[in-house]
Amino acid sequence: MKSDDQRIVITGIGLTAPNGNDLASYRTNLVEGRPRIGTLDLRYMGTAPAGICDFDPLRYQKKREIRVGTRAGSIAIYCAHEALADAAVDLAGRDTSRVGVYIGTTEHGNVETENEVYNLSQFDYDTRFWSHHHNPRTVANNPAGEITLNLDIHGPHYTIGAACAAGNAGMIQGAQMLQLGEVDLALAGGVSESIRSFGIFAGFRSQGALAEHEDPNRASRPFDRDRNGIVVSEGGAIYALERLSDARRRGARIHGELRGWALNSDASDYVLPNAERQVECMQAALRMAAMTPEDISIVSTHATATQQGDKQECRAVREVFGESPRTCVNNTKSYIGHAMGAAGSLELAGNLPAFVDGIVHPTINIEHLDPDCELPNLVINESRDGVEVSAILNSSFGMLGINSALIVTRPE
Questions:
Q1: Which of 76, 253, 110, 96 is closest to 184 using CA atoms?
Q2: In degrees, to the nearest 5, what angle opens at C-alpha 303 toward C-alphas 224 and 12?
Q3: Coil vs helix vs strand at 44
Q4: Cross-strand bridge partners of residue 47
Q5: Is 195 helix (H, G, I), strand (E, B) or coil?
Q6: In terms of Cα–Cα distance, which of 165, 79, 185 is closest to 339?
Q7: Domain boundaries, the chain
Q8: Of 44, 97, 165, 369, which has the fewest beta carbons less than 10 angstroms from its beta carbon?
Q9: CB within 8 A of 251, min separation 6: which ones?
Q10: Do domains 8-249 and 258-409 have the same CATH topology?
């Protein structure tokens, strides 16, 4: 057993998702089966389903800060403030050089560059009209850096580029920095502004992987036989992480403990997932946590509603958990779409309240379950009540073959 100085716990959660701007409303919508996907009229492309957040950026920023900064920065700032409030942490009473900010993201800078090039085209490409804010908006550390500027944090900050595994990777990085003693409080998780980039939509469409449906709320259909691709979404979830010893010392409420994690690489394809490497990643997280598959109550899947992606992941989950009678399996993208770098962080947040209420929220929008996606204890269309939830394994996988698994256990 690790010492309390090496055990890392979650003491605060801040989020914005297409169907909720705080954990309580987000969780209620998941349990009650309420998605919220809208549509965007995209430059050069027409309309497409998209997950759009409606948080108020002026709650924590001035108008000038929003004008100078980025959408990803506003999402990150909102979530960081909400996480600190939930953790009952007042930075005014802390040495902020001991606060670290570790934010996962899929990509950054595409939105600003696309918009600047388009705006320049309206002025005959005269570079005098190029924004002098462009460089700080597009540097990779921007979302984390905007948090430090807004909250006057003097500790280390950076973003972790890990494709759609970035949310998990941000949390893993924060936990490791706490274990090393580099910081005393970590703000960690993932953010995404992907819906602001038409290039993201165009790329998925050219791959034949962009979802289409007459009802946008039914466009994201993981595991369904007729699924036809990804719903691109924005959002964020940031966690306040502390060493258990520090959390106990100040009497903090604890949402869960990070017991095990793993990251690995497929090294096999730019886009197509590798079930064998996913199996190895989940098994490595279980070994670190000193747990068996039967110890896991919920597997929160990454499934994006692409044909091959869902099949490969289900094959991996079946291999690791196929003999576990008590492990439920669910998915959150069916409600909010794919929030890219924020996906893993948001999906974990949606399941954490199950430690208290004993409810496993379902995967929705399944009309005809794909036989290749059949899994024991796959929770579909209706929530499952009365489940004793003691551990959650949160999986996130991404392009260029990056895999992540994070295990969180119920607070003692």
A1: 96
A2: 130
A3: coil
A4: 41
A5: helix
A6: 165
A7: 8-249, 258-409
A8: 44
A9: none
A10: yes
DSSP character at residue 397: E
CATH of domain 8-249: 3.40.47.10
- What the block records as the tokens of 26 is 């987000």
Report d(CA 283, CA 293) in Å as an integer.
9
What is the per-residue pLDDT across 223-276, written as a single tens digit (0 to 9) for each? 999 999 999 999 999 999 999 999 999 999 999 999 999 999 999 999 999 999
Separation CA 114–CA 95 (nearest Å): 39
Q: Which fold has domain 258-409?
A: Peroxisomal Thiolase; Chain A, domain 1 (3.40.47)
Q: Which residues contact residue 290 at a Cβ distance below 8 angstroms, ignoring those fewer than 6 apart?
A: 260
Sign of CA dihedral 170, 331, 280, 162: negative
Rg (CA), the chain: 20
Q: Is 29 helix (H, G, I), strand (E, B) or coil?
A: helix
Predicted TM-score (pTM) of this structure: 0.97
Which helix H or strand E contains 329, and what residues bound it? strand 328-330
Structure tokens at 155: 């500790």
pLDDT tens sequence across 126-167: 999 899 999 999 999 999 999 999 999 999 999 999 999 999
Residue 55 amino acid letter: F
Tokens found for residue 270: 């730019």
- CA dist 158 and 248 (Å) reads 28
Q: Which two tokens stand for residue 319?
A: 């291999």
How far is it, in rounded angstroms, from Cα 360 to Cα 362? 6
Token duo for residue 146: 């905007």
